[in-house]
């Protein structure tokens, strides 16, 4: 019996490599994709662009770019494999870029293949490119050699520094399968550089519009707790009254660097649909275009009041814009579903209700410091 | 498979029955001449056998092996005194005159022969059927030295020697405790070893002591060269890769377990003593941990545990990551790693096994070589092979670092036997990682833990603190705690918490 057990174990262990469908992927035999881009081309086809790590030590270039066309994204990768001397794999992929037109016609089929692939992490970044993704990835940049890593690092440092909204595959899917809507950064090639230009907003899996980085700041503040970023607000001089007596310019531009912000949302009424948004923010005044005398009593209070009003106005504009785009990236739908029992809210139902939503916005900015001296 | 096994290892060793000693037929005779002939016959193959008749007024026959006896003692205490004796004495009376002598108790010729072979002197009195035996043996031993294989910075710097009496005296010197008990066992027809089982009567679990005694007595060894051999015979599972008892040359290392209620076995002729029972974690504790302040001790012990992890898994993780899990390699590491691998013609498993073997060869060569040549060996191995292997595209330079790191970490284990075991086990983990990747590493860990759980050391659980965690032994299992909070005795001890087991008088 004991001998049988031993033989059984040995056979089991030896048969594991075959039965487990284990494929040996030896590192140096792989063409590892850093970034892939997909474009819509005529005739229902997809054009895939892949940026691969070049691991040949004698090669001058650090990347290898392959373009291929197919009906599906997986097919495009298979087609790309035919052009590569190494097996093209997606395990080290860090960013996926879809072009604007492709995103407008819906991404769910393309995203689907990513999350079905076990080797693709759910933390890879997604992005939309203003022009074609092929142009973005194949352009010969003079300032850096590896466009894939550049885009990844660009997105990553801006997300970690909380300057940009985070658009990972995980967040995209989680928004897509709930009643919220996804949003991802929008990239644009600007000469010999790549810029994180805007935030692309989706309705379901279809891109519907974009908002600028300043609005993205408010988007982030409303969505969750937030510890960085900065806003630039222009206040009309005549509204500031006494405190800006000596200022000649028509507007005073103030930059507030955010230290900590929190946002509480309330559902005030269901019919008509009305939400209350309360934002509390502590900030440091880092720049002011006019010389204001902060030693005087009441200057800071007045400034805070004006800043509150200005940001409330801007947030209202943003929320209206979101409604007009029929996109809910903040997740008011999820919030509604969590507050109303037995609402049986579906995404379609919510988008019908969303059109009539209105908001009551309160912002409370506290300037805690006037800058720091090192 | 089993046929090959039978060919390799003969299932039954050929048993040579030792020829019956011719002398066994001899009996003691009253006449001096008869005794002379018989003794000459017995020791005819030993040229230094001395048989002398001292005839003054009485005739004494003195028999000894000249190179085993202390000649000064023999002259002063025996020969001089015997010459002065003027009347015929009975052996009983003679013993009184010779304080270092003792009466030959039985008329067994073999026993007398055995004593002479150990350096005693036999004195025969004409007219009596039996004589007396005098201990004139000269002990040949080296002086007490520093422990060489288990060196430490702090603590007593004294090591056991090859002499049983010295070793026992050292233990007594550290523990002048009336409860210190020794049980003597003789073993080995050829080597005539004395074995002493030492324990503290009021601390040790007596059931366990009985178990150990029974185990040793059940062994019928013909010869026993060293304590390490006895330790192997005592093991519950000799087929396991893991040593189940600690053998140490440090005196303090042997005293500490005694105080914990463990048993120390001293074997004559061996500079090592056996400590049992031993748990798996004991192998990673150094006695020096207790000499350092507890923060330092804790850090060093933690470092050692980290070292074991590195030496077991570092190379395996490299192999698994490069063969199967390229997704897990951090991006910053990816390109340099792939580039260094690009020139290597072997798959990662072969590459790793090859380099591991080279490192093991270096270690083995270093251990065998004289120390002066050993340094050259280090330079040849470390610089020439390491640097040249990378430049020749034989291995990747990252693997060199990993393999060197794991070799280095395997030597942090304080018990040499265990560090050897880790060096061996590493290979199987690497191979399983090369065949089925991370799953293989996980399976190896599972099998390793299962195996450890099945082991026992002299009947006590081997994988102890993980096996049953009780409140009192959570501390000082793997974590060196301050003395105020550490338990005073091990769980094998007979303490108030552990009810006494076994009866207090142990049959010898």
Automatic annotation (TrEMBL), chain A:
Spore germination protein N-terminal domain segment(s): 25-188
Keyword annotations: Germination, Lipoprotein, Membrane, Palmitate, Plasmid, Signal
A single Gene Ontology CC term: membrane
Domain Spore germination GerAC-like C-terminal: 198-371
Main location: membrane
Topological category with respect to the lipid bilayer: Lipid-anchor
Biological process according to GO: spore germination
Subcellular locations according to the entry: Membrane
Coiled coil segments of this chain: none
InterPro entries xref list: GerAC_N, Spore_GerAC-like, Spore_GerAC-like_C, Spore_GerAC_C_sf
Record keyword Transcription regulation present: no
Domain of life: Bacteria
Sequence similarity: Belongs to the GerABKC lipoprotein family.
Name this protein carries in UniProt: Ger(X)C family spore germination protein
Lineage: Bacteria, Bacillati, Bacillota, Bacilli, Bacillales
From TrEMBL, chain B:
Region ranges (Disordered): 489-508
Keywords: Membrane, Plasmid, Transmembrane, Transmembrane helix
Biased composition (Polar residues): 492-502
Pfam families: GerA
GO cellular component, one term: membrane
Taxonomy, superkingdom: Bacteria
Keyword Transferase: no
Biological process according to GO: spore germination
Segments passing through the bilayer: 303-326, 398-417, 429-453
Protein family per UniProt: Belongs to the GerABKA family.
Listed name of the protein: Spore germination protein
Organism from which the protein derives: Paenibacillus rhizovicinus
């Amino acid at each position: 019996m004991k001998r049988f057990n031993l033989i059984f174990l040995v056979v089991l262990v030896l048969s594991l490599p075959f039965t487990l469908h284990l494929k040996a992927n030896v590192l140096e035999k792989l063409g590892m994709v850093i970034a892939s881009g997909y474009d819509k081309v005529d005739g229902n086809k997809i054009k895939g662009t892949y940026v691969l790590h070049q691991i040949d030590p004698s090669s001058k270039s650090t990347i290898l770019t392959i373009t291929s066309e197919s009906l599906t994204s997986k097919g495009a990768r298979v087609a790309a494999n035919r052009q590569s001397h190494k097996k093209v794999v997606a395990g080290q992929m860090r960013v996926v870029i879809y072009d604007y037109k492709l995103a407008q016609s819906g991404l769910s089929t393309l995203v689907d293949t990513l999350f079905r692939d076990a080797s693709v992490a759910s933390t890879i970044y997604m992005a939309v490119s203003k022009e074609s993704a092929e142009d973005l990835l194949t352009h010969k940049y003079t300032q850096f050699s590896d466009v894939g890593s550049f885009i990844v690092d660009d997105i990553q440092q801006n997300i970690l520094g909380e300057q940009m909204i985070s658009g990972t595959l995980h967040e995209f899917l989680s928004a897509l399968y709930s009643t919220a809507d996804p949003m991802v950064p929008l990239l644009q090639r600007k000469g010999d550089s790549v810029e994180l230009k805007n935030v692309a907003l989706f309705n379901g899996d279809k891109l519907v519009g974009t908002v600028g980085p300043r609005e993205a700041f408010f988007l982030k503040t409303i969505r969750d707790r937030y510890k960085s970023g900065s806003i630039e607000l222009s206040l009309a001089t005549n509204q500031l009254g006494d405190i800006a007596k000596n200022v000649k310019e028509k507007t005073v531009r103030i930059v507030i660097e955010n230290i900590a912000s929190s946002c509480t949302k309330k559902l005030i009424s269901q019919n008509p649909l009305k939400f209350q948004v309360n934002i509390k923010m502590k900030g440091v005044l880092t720049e002011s275009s006019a010389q204001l005398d902060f030693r005087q009593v009441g200057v800071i209070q007045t400034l805070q009041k004006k800043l509150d009003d200005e940001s409330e106005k801007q947030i209202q504009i943003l929320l209206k814009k979101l409604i007009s785009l029929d996109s809910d990236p903040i997740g008011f739908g999820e919030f509604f579903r969590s507050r109303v029992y037995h609402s049986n809210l579906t995404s379609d139902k919510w988008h019908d209700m969303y059109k009539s939503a209105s908001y009551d916005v309160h912002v409370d900015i506290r300037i805690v410091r006037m800058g720091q001296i090192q | 498979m089993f046929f090959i096994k039978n060919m390799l290892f003969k299932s039954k060793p050929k048993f040579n029955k030792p020829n019956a000693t011719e002398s066994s037929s001899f009996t003691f005779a009253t006449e001096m001449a008869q005794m002379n002939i018989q003794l000459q016959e017995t020791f005819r193959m030993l040229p230094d056998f001395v048989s002398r008749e001292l005839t003054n007024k009485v005739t004494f026959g003195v028999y000894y092996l000249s190179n085993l006896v202390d000649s000064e003692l023999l002259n002063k205490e025996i020969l001089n005194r015997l010459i002065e004796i003027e009347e015929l004495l009975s052996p009983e009376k003679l013993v009184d005159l010779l304080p270092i002598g003792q009466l030959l108790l039985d008329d067994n010729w073999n026993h007398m022969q055995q004593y002479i072979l150990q350096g005693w002197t036999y004195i025969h009195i004409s007219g009596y059927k039996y004589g007396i035996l005098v201990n004139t043996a000269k002990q040949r031993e080296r002086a007490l030295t520093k422990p060489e294989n288990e060196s430490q910075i702090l603590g007593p710097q004294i090591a056991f020697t090859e002499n049983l009496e010295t070793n026992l005296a050292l233990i007594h010197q550290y523990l002048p405790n009336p409860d210190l008990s020794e049980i003597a066992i003789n073993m080995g027809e050829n080597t005539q070893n004395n074995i002493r089982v030492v324990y503290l009567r009021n601390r040790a679990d007596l059931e366990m002591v009985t178990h150990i005694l029974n185990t040793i007595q059940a062994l019928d060894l013909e010869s026993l060269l060293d304590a390490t051999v006895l330790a192997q015979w005592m093991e519950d599972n000799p087929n396991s890769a893991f040593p189940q008892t600690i053998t140490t040359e440090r005196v303090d290392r042997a005293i500490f377990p005694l105080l914990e209620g463990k048993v120390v076995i001293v074997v004559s002729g061996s500079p090592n003593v056996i400590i049992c029972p031993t748990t798996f974690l004991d192998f990673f504790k150094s006695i020096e941990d207790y000499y350092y302040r507890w923060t330092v001790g804790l850090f060093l012990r933690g470092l050692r545990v980290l070292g074991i992890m590195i030496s077991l898994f570092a190379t395996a993780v490299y192999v698994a990551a490069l063969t199967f899990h390229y997704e897990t390699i951090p991006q910053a590491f990816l390109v340099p790693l792939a580039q260094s691998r690009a020139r290597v013609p072997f798959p990662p498993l072969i590459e790793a096994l090859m380099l591991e073997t080279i490192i093991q060869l270096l270690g083995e060569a270093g251990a065998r070589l004289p120390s002066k040549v050993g340094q050259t060996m280090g330079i040849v191995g470390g610089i020439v092979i390491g640097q040249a292997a990378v430049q020749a595209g034989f291995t990747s330079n990252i693997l060199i670092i990993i393999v060197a790191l794991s070799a280095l970490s395997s030597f942090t284990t304080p018990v040499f036997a265990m560090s050897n075991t880790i060096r061996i086990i590493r290979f199987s983990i690497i191979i399983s990682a090369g065949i089925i990747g991370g799953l293989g590493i996980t399976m190896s860990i599972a099998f390793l833990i299962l195996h450890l759980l099945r082991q026992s050391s002299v009947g006590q659980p081997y994988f102890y603190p993980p096996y049953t965690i009780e409140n009192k032994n959570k501390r000082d299992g793997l974590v060196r705690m301050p003395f105020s909070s550490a338990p005073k005795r091990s769980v094998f001890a007979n303490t108030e918490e552990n009810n006494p087991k076994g009866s207090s008088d142990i049959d010898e």
